[in-house]
Write a structure and sequence with these properties.
Layout lengths: L7 E8 L2 E8 L2 E8 L10 E10 L4 E5 L5 E5 L12 E8 L8 E3 L13 E4 L4 H8 L4 E4 L2 H12 L3 E3 L8 H9 L4 E3 L5 E6 L4 E6 L7 H21 L4 E6 L12 H7 L6 E6 L5 E5 L6 H5 L5 H18 L5 E5 L1 H9 L3 H9 L4 E4 L9 E4 L1
Parallel strand pairs: 1-10, 10-11, 14-15, 18-19
Antiparallel strand pairs: 1-2, 2-3, 4-5, 4-7, 4-9, 5-6, 7-8, 12-13, 13-14, 15-17, 16-17, 18-20
Length: 374
């Protein structure tokens, strides 16, 4: 899937409860984001907050946001000089993580008011707007009229094309996205990556497969693995410590592969490559901004992810059969999670002019959902 020199293309698709945005260069997936409007990650949001306790050991302060959520504002991001009880306008710099509140800064417009109770003042830009800003020459295709109108109002009308719902993501793109939802990534020329996030770190193992006995082939697989590892780290938005275990090499020999990883990851400003450990693992760390894909979708996918994927299929079926009354038959856990996501079934009803019937079926495992006539 070589993409050298080809222009970028942004695809944005809306389905009930979910928005998927992909950046392509040629036929290569370069960036990907999944957003659930009912559960935004908050990055980029502006809040009027109330300064809470100062924590000298952490060189910062806690700030109470809307809904009593607490974020942390480091002194070097604008917290110095603020006192307890003071109102302050802050921006969410990094999403919340593992029970810890979001990271904040004070890089906000000067004309934003700082009076009243804690509340959100403005939402941060969605992925399609972020990608449109960072790739100003990229064409944008969306199947969502509201998104098209917003982008055109922002002066991007000459870049925006509106498509029929459910028609944007071709099979090759869907296959590339599907690989982001699993632990295993096949490599060109043989071998595979095995990606395992844990609460403490992400472990990436290189399996050379049949190339194990051939040193030249083994080296080529390791080099290909590092190129793909850099890409998967970016696409999955992995964060925190990331350790890469190359295959079939003595620990001392692995350090010579570090420059190859640095070259492959050159465009990822969030990733730092630290070198190798005593065991020969390549050690990296990546700054967290948005939640990693596995936190949004689950790895393996959660019942909600299966439910929203089924709604995408139902929406495509409804688009191809206008007026058809459809039903979703699925495990009760899938239906409960889907119903619980605010506005999801209402979006399906609004876009298709028909309600979707829900049929619990305990015999179906999550991932075995069926779209059928109501």
């Amino acid at each position: 899937m070589a993409a050298g020199g080809q222009p970028f293309l942004i695809l944005h698709s809306a389905s009930p409860g979910e928005r998927r945005t992909a950046l392509l260069r040629g036929d290569m997936l370069e960036d990907f984001a999944v957003e659930r409007p009912a559960r935004p990650d908050g990055v980029g949001d502006l809040h009027l907050g109330r300064v809470g306790a100062r924590v000298p050991a952490l060189s910062g302060i806690f700030v109470t946001l809307a809904g009593e959520e607490s974020g942390f504002l480091p002194d070097n991001q604008g917290g110095e000089g603020l006192s307890e009880g003071q109102a302050a306008v802050v921006r969410i710099l990094r999403a919340a993580q593992g029970g810890k509140g979001p990271r904040l800064d004070r890089k906000v417009p000067r004309d934003v008011a700082a009076e009243g109770p804690p509340r959100r003042l403005r939402r941060g830009p969605p992925a399609v707007e972020r990608l449109a800003a960072s790739h100003p020459a990229a064409a944008i295709r969306t199947d969502d009229p509201e998104t098209a109108a917003t982008l055109r109002a922002a002066g991007l009308g000459d870049r925006v094309t509106l498509a029929r719902r459910g028609t944007l993501f071709e099979d090759a793109v869907e296959a590339a996205i599907e690989r982001l939802l699993g632990h295993e990534v096949p490599l060109e020329g043989g071998g595979r990556l095995l990606i395992h996030p844990t609460p403490a770190l992400v472990a990436i193992d290189v399996d050379t497969g049949a190339a194990t006995r051939d040193r030249g082939a083994q080296r080529r697989v390791n080099e290909a693995a590092l190129r793909e590892a850099a890409r998967q780290i970016r696409l999955r938005q992995l964060a925190g410590p990331i350790l890469i275990d190359l295959a079939g090499l003595a620990p001392a020999a692995r350090a010579e592969f570090v420059p190859a990883l640095k070259s492959a990851a050159g465009g990822d400003r969030l990733l730092r490559i630290l070198g190798t450990t005593a065991l020969g693992l390549i050690e990296t760390v990546r700054t967290r901004v948005h939640p990693p894909l596995h936190e949004v979708l689950g790895l393996p996918p959660t019942p909600l992810s299966h439910g929203l994927a089924a709604l995408r299929r139902a929406l495509r079926e409804a688009e191809s059969r206008p007026g058809a009354a459809l039903a979703l038959r699925a495990h009760p856990a899938v239906l409960r999670a889907t119903e619980a996501l605010d506005g999801t079934l209402e979006e399906y009803r609004r876009w298709t002019a028909r309600a979707l019937a829900l049929r619990p079926d305990p015999a179906l495992l999550p991932g075995e959902e069926v779209i059928e006539d109501a």
